[in-house]
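Internal tracking record. Fields below are filled automatically when a chain is submitted to the structure queue. Please do not edit lines marked as system-generated. If the sequence contains nonstandard residues, flag them in the REMARKS field before resubmitting.
Queue: standard
Priority: normal
Entity type: single polypeptide chain
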Amino acid sequence: MDYAAALLEQTRLLGEVIRAADPTLPVPTCPEWTMQQLFRHVGRGDRWAAQIVAEKADGPRDPRQVPDGKPPADIDGAIEWFHGGVRTLLDAVEATGPDTPVWTFVGPRPAAWWIRRRLHESTVHRADAELASGLEFTISPELAADCISEWFALFAAEPPGRRTPPLDDPNTLHLHAAEKDLGSAGEWFLRRDGDALTVDHSHAKATTAVRGRSVDLMLALTRRRPTEDAGVEIIGDAGVWNTWLDRTGF
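SYSTEM-GENERATED OUTPUT FOLLOWS
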């Protein structure tokens, strides 16, 4: 997948939703946020990532101190600011070198890691904005599946002790996307290995299996839709799935 092109496209789509929306509209999937706050969060986040990459940072940066971190008041200027953050990030990765190690919240990673991270941040927040606006959220199965893979990878990369493990040993969890064309990219098998979480794309019997379209799995997994409304099927112990959701909030 061309993560840079996908990030530009998701930013464009989110910008269109923002342009048409009431900035004071509440965003139910991001409690206490309005559409304007969601917009600023995503736009500032792109610039935050760009700063980390450009400085080859070996530690975190304060998002509140990001240069040019607030959009202009007029909507045209604000949308241009929004798109400008992504361009700044892509330029920073190119200038720094995509393989150059930089700080991330799961440990040092290649600078290009931030492109994929910002892609899926923008994708999920586009879902927030469209659901708040009463629109139907659509996404390609390939992008939805990669969003799920990246989401699981974040938790697998967390150091032990950061949070209560989302799976209790010996429970296992298997997600299976309905789209056959995805092949193994549409399957995820999760288990505990000591204090660590391991994820692979195998098809194996688990304590709990969750099946559905990739977009529905993505929305349920990121808690953008309640499981009962997401159109997914749970096979086995639903408590394992509910525990996973309870322990994987950001």
